[in-house]
Amino acid sequence: MSEKSTARSRREAVSDAVLEIVATHGLDQVTVREVATTADVSIGTVQHHFPTKQQMLAGAYAEASRRIRRRLQDLPLGPDSRRNMIHVAGQLLPLDAERSTEARVYVAFAAGAATSPDLAEIQQSLLEELHTALTAAFTDAWGGAATPARCALAAHTVIALVDGLALHSVTTNSWITDRQLTDAVAMVLDGLHIADPS
Amino acid sequence: MSEKSTARSRREAVSDAVLEIVATHGLDQVTVREVATTADVSIGTVQHHFPTKQQMLAGAYAEASRRIRRRLQDLPLGPDSRRNMIHVAGQLLPLDAERSTEARVYVAFAAGAATSPDLAEIQQSLLEELHTALTAAFTDAWGGAATPARCALAAHTVIALVDGLALHSVTTNSWITDRQLTDAVAMVLDGLHIADPS
Amino acid sequence: MSEKSTARSRREAVSDAVLEIVATHGLDQVTVREVATTADVSIGTVQHHFPTKQQMLAGAYAEASRRIRRRLQDLPLGPDSRRNMIHVAGQLLPLDAERSTEARVYVAFAAGAATSPDLAEIQQSLLEELHTALTAAFTDAWGGAATPARCALAAHTVIALVDGLALHSVTTNSWITDRQLTDAVAMVLDGLHIADPS
Amino acid sequence: MSEKSTARSRREAVSDAVLEIVATHGLDQVTVREVATTADVSIGTVQHHFPTKQQMLAGAYAEASRRIRRRLQDLPLGPDSRRNMIHVAGQLLPLDAERSTEARVYVAFAAGAATSPDLAEIQQSLLEELHTALTAAFTDAWGGAATPARCALAAHTVIALVDGLALHSVTTNSWITDRQLTDAVAMVLDGLHIADPS
DNA sequence: CATGAATGAGCATTCATTCAT
DNA sequence: TATGAATGAATGCTCATTCAT
Questions:
Q1: Chain B residues 38-97, Cβ below 7 A from strand E
Q2: Rounded-to-integer distance, Cα D104 and Cα C164, Å
Q3: Which of A26, A155, D95, D193 would bridge A134 by S-S if both were Cys, CB 3.0 to 4.6 A apart?
Q4: Whole-number percent of chain A with pLDDT over 70
Q5: What is the rounded CA–CA span in Å between residue C151 and residue C137?
Q6: C116 and D183: CB-CB below 8 Å?
Q7: pLDDT, tens digit, for every residue of D171-189?
């Protein structure tokens, strides 16, 4: 029992170290040595759990993706569609230190997915899950008044908006404020007639 | 004169080579060797024009950024705000092969800007120019009916949407269609009451 | 009893795996991992039987050497010295697939003996046994007509010839034919007046 | 002029370092680091001249092979066939310190040729040149009394004998004496009726 | 006896950069 | 301006070996 938990925590420690380095120094500054040092394990241990660097990065992104999805699934959703969507966006936008770190990780891996099939697969599956959930939310919010295509398009729109805002926030130095981040989402939801019922 | 033009074309050939490699293999696959080979010049020549790799990348991104801005400035704008904005978005979205290459370059450098001050500076200046122009467009479209803050927010929103759409298009394999790309922009402009006057 | 036989066969399986890898990929391509995989046992099992790689190689060569000696001892010898010597040479030359594999193993280990005392010891003991037997054969063939030194020299000569032929056969691609291999031995035996009595 | 000689001596220094390490520690103890240290150049310089380890080893063996051939070509040959052949054998057998080093190098590379096509090519070309020269020598010595096939076979025999003797000398600790090395060659030449005319 | 996680030294190779010409 | 030899730090990875179970 202690072995299993040791093994799991070692593996997780490695993933955590990767994510930490990606957030602070970028994807291409991740080296096996630095990961080992940060995770406080030997180089051999890193490579025991992730035989290649590629697998190590993919493993870490899979872990990050899993955490994001779990957090969204655990979100308490109410009958108010607008509030639900705002909540979801609030989980994805870099509005506090923790979320900011996560956004930096997400942006780095998402961009990396453009040239790495391994990362692209994880990225796409994350986007698909998000898209499915948001499409359902729009379907629900709009009742029968909207075609499935329109609901899907609205979902694409909101995810793209959030990702673009995260990209801007993460890559510029306070060019865009936290307030603008949330206001931009509200502005688009308003445009889509997803209004606060109150 | 021929020497000067040779020199200028050499420098441009190097920049082009960098952008080509970034588009096809990613930012971290750019090596001085590969750039020299692709540009068909010697390593020494590359480093004569860009003494360090950092400067080479920044130079190439500055060149790419310059081209985007020039293209937007050369865009023939009419009295129709919606049409103007659609045109601008059309220049930024990966709707054809050339624009797709450009989007890949943009996404790679934008993500790189998260951890490189040199790139961040160029990235931020590009975003600012875009934002200024779009803010003016919204001010113009909405007349006196909107506060400057609202116009600025709308500009942020549209740029973020376009960047997010480009990110999705570039990092997934036909998960989002060209049609959805343009429809998403239209949907948001509709929401912002930027309608076709006709 | 079954356990003992299992243990013995495991140990032999490991030796066999080493010899197979040496024959096909060379001495320096032998890794504990590869040996374990080829022998279909765990790395731990390999290292249980041979604590160090050095011991593993020495053990495998000792096994190969044992097999060669046993085969020579089991050779039915008659009154015809020439025939006997031809038979011995035929056991050492790479005249068929099995013997070719063995010759590749022998050449690899013999060369390795130049820089490994452990292998040199096994190599020298194999050569000495061969030399003793051949010296006796020459003494027998020549009767009292030759000094012990001459018999010993003839034995050295024949072994060197056979080893040189094996080296050439193994390291070149059909530069020397099977026929030339046996003819060269016959030519030297003729020169030493070891003639077929018939 | 000084550059060219510098470049050439650097490259030769690397080859010499490889040969020295092969002679003293064996082919599989050659590392780029050790070669750089021994040659007193940087690692980068080694790899500038020989981009891969494989090429470095092949380059060093080609150099060693070139030296052997040049020495044999420069050998003053007289009308006495036996003396000529003895001279050739004397150049190949490890009869002094320098030749012993060379023999260790030769044995190591020859054995390596069994599993490396690059080395095999060099090895085979060296053997072919040697074989051609010796075949001619036998043809000359025997006049019209021998078929070409018999001359070629005798050449194969002598080369194999010399290589086998070198192998034995190099891989055992004074099991075979220098005197026996030369006597074995003389014994075979006697058997082939290549006699001292005096 | 057997296993496989853990270790870290060592490997070949790539790389950006310097510099003499 | 242009070249490419020289440099050595850094990288991903392989490996033999140790050890707890």
A1: 43-44, 47, 51-54
A2: 15
A3: A155
A4: 94
A5: 8
A6: no
A7: 998 899 999 999 999 999 9
Nearest to D160 among C114, C123, C165 (CB): C165
Q: Which nucleotide is nearest to D46 (CA to C1')?
A: F6
Q: Please report residues of A whose CB lies closer than 8 A to that of B172.
A: 113, 120, 123-124, 127
B103 touches chain A (CB under 8 A): no
Asked if the model's pLDDT at residue D4 lies above 50, the reply is no
What token pair was written down for D112? 């390596």
Burial annotation A125-159 (CB, 10 A radius, 16+ → b, else e): ebbeebbebbbebbbebbeeebeeebbbbbbbbbb
Confidence band for C9, pLDDT divided at 50, 70 and 90 = confident
Is B32:B53 a contact under the CB 8 Å cutoff? yes
Residues 37-66, chain D, CB closer than 7 Å to nucleic strand E:
43-44, 47, 51-54
Distance CA B117, CA B152 (A): 25
3-state secondary structure A11-43: HHHHHHHHHHHHHHHCHHHCCHHHHHHHHCCCH
Question: D51 CB contacts (<8 Å, ≥6 apart)?
Answer: none
* pTM listed for this prediction: 0.88
> What is the per-residue pLDDT across B124-180, written as a single tens digit (0 to 9) for each?
999 999 999 999 999 999 988 899 999 999 999 999 999 999 999 999 988 999 999
CA distance C50 to C48: 6
User: For tokens 């750039």, what's the residue?
Assistant: B35
Identify whether the C-beta of residue A158 lies closer than 8 Å to the C-beta of residue B160: no
Do the chains contact at A172 and B124, CB–CB below 8 Å?
yes
Cβ of residue D9 near strand F, that is under 7 Å?
no
Supply the DSSP symbol for B193.
T
Q: Do A171 and B25 touch (CB under 8 A)?
A: no
> How far apart are alpha carbons A126 and A134 in whole angstroms?
12
Taking alpha carbons only, the member of C183, C75, C179, C198 closest to residue C137 is C75
Fold observed for domain C78-191: Tetracycline Repressor; domain 2 (1.10.357)
CA distance B111 to B153: 22
What is the dihedral sign for C-alpha C149, C152, C156, C162?
positive
Residue C137 in contact with residue C124, Cβ under 8 Å? no
Shortest CA gap A3–chain B (Å): 38
Query: For B115, which of A25, A153, A190 is closest by C-beta distance?
Result: A25
- Chain B residues within an 8 Å CB radius of A154: 187
Residues of C with CB below 8 A from D27's CB?
28, 111
Mean pLDDT of B191-197: 82
pLDDT tier for residue A2 given thresholds of 50, 70 and 90: very low
Q: Establish whether the CB of D45 is closer than 7 Å to any nucleic acid atom in strand F.
A: yes
pLDDT by residue (tens digit) across A26-64? 999 999 999 999 999 999 999 999 999 999 999 999 999
**Closest nucleotide to residue C45 (Cα to C1')?**
E2
Which pLDDT score is estimated for A4? Answer: 39
Residue B175 burial by Cβ neighbours in a 10 Å radius (0-12, 13-18, 19+): middle
pLDDT in tens, C12-56: 999 999 999 999 999 999 999 999 999 999 999 999 999 999 999
What is the spatial distance between Cα D192 and Cα D25, in angstroms, rounded to a whole number? Answer: 38
User: Nearest CA to A130 among A104, A111, A110?
Assistant: A110
